Amino acid sequence: MDLSKYSKKTIGTTTLTGKSSRGGITIESFHGRLRLRFRVVHKPYTISLGVSESPENWKLAELKAKELEADLIFKQFDPANLNKYRIHNLEIIYTSKNIELTIKQLWNKYLKYKSTTLKASTLDYLQKGLGKFIESCPIQDVKRSLEIRDWLLSNTTTSMAKRVLTHLSACVNWGIKNKLISSSNTFQGMSNDLPKHNWEENPEPNAFSEEEKKSILFALQDHKGNWNGKLYTGFAYSHYYPFVKFLFLTGCRPSEAIGLQWKNIKEDCSQITFETSIVRIRGKATRMQGSKNNKVRKFNCNEELQTLLKVHKPLECNPDRLVFPAPKGGAINYGNFCQVAWKKLIEPLIGRSSTPYCCRDTFISEQIAKGVPTAVVARWVDNSVDVIEKRYLDSKLLEQLKPL
Does 90 or 195 have the greater pLDDT score? Predict the structure, then answer.
């Protein structure tokens, strides 16, 4: 239905000012949201109805406008109780004969349902990362997927639009399954028509060579701060040497190393249990249970890793103490570490863009090149065999193997 004719309507010609002038109640769409505008004794009023623009919502808006007009005629209008004319608090599950939930309403219900099963970091990403686009999208009709797609492509990157459409499709499927909406899912498969994400186009691991790895560890171990000609001043990045070497020796995710506590390591440092991680949610260090894939895994330490942990372990060791704390205590701020220490010291040394996460790529690539079965490596690093074989087996192992 063409909504252009609904851009503005005036309900009735009731005298609202108490004088001879004639007026009315205007319904209009403002940034895709419906509102009422009118005057009472020369005082202007604007009431946001709390719903997006759609044919069904225009009908509801007309009913609210008529209700308001009746109150004005019979002098029952109360400026302190404008909420009675809003329709955003409706909790009715609408059928195809009435009004569908808006995309934002459906998305909020979907997240509330998923909140009991999602990790806090994932939920925060969906609420703040993707949710801001769903919140600000002026098109809220679940049936207008093509227009929503076009708006996303005009207001964010193709990669982000692809992510939003993927999650919107899952949201709409959930809504249909639970009879919250009656329409079909026109978002289904829409994200697949957009170009692949960069990481899909270029799945090559960003692993360091043996020489690069040695250079990185030496640079960290030897760093003494900033030299002013007489003495070293400023912070020494050597504090992070054990942390980075641990990443190279285990292939674990940086968040897992940051959250590791001494109670997760056997007394003789022969085995590590990865069962938690620490991530930043809205700037606050938050401990997450389980791995990224909600798993707990055991990791047996080789001699080099055992030695590193034994040397690094304090004499008086509280089991709850972090293995790799920040210089001033507490959890390492991974983002800050990447932007300051890594970008200033490591990237100029390597001569290309990288992050500490590349230590994970390096470990996996090294183990595959040494002949460790992909299923074993996958267990060590909490990855799938499919990912290991696609990203690491072809690109790293086959370069080094020769036909028999």
Answer: 195
**pLDDT band for position 88 (50/70/90)?**
low
Count of all residues that appear for the chain in the document: 404
Interatomic CA distance for residues 84 and 49, integer angstroms: 10
Of residues 206, 169, 174, the one with CA closest to residue 188: 169
- The whole-angstrom separation of Cα 218 and Cα 112 is 48
Asked which of 87-101, 227-241, 293-307 is least confident by mean pLDDT, the reply is 87-101
Q: Is the pLDDT of residue 234 over 70?
A: no
Please tell me the predicted confidence (pLDDT) of residue 169: 93
The helix or strand, by DSSP H or E, that contains position 297, with its residue range, turns out to be strand 297-300
* One-character DSSP codes across 115-144: TTTS-HHHHHIIIIIIHHHHHH-S---TT-
The whole-angstrom separation of Cα 48 and Cα 98 is: 21
Neighbours of 254 (CB within 10 A): 24
Let me know how many helices (H) and strands (E) the chain has, helices first. 17, 10
Between 391 and 361, the higher pLDDT residue: 361
Q: How far apart are CA 389 and CA 199, in angstroms?
A: 16
> Which band of pLDDT confidence, cut at 50, 70 and 90, is reported for residue 223?
confident
Q: How big is the chain by its Cα radius of gyration, in Å? A: 30
Q: Token digits for 220?
A: 């960290």
> E strand or H helix at 156, and its extent?
none
The stretches of 34-130 forming alpha helices (DSSP H) are: 55-73, 103-114, 120-124
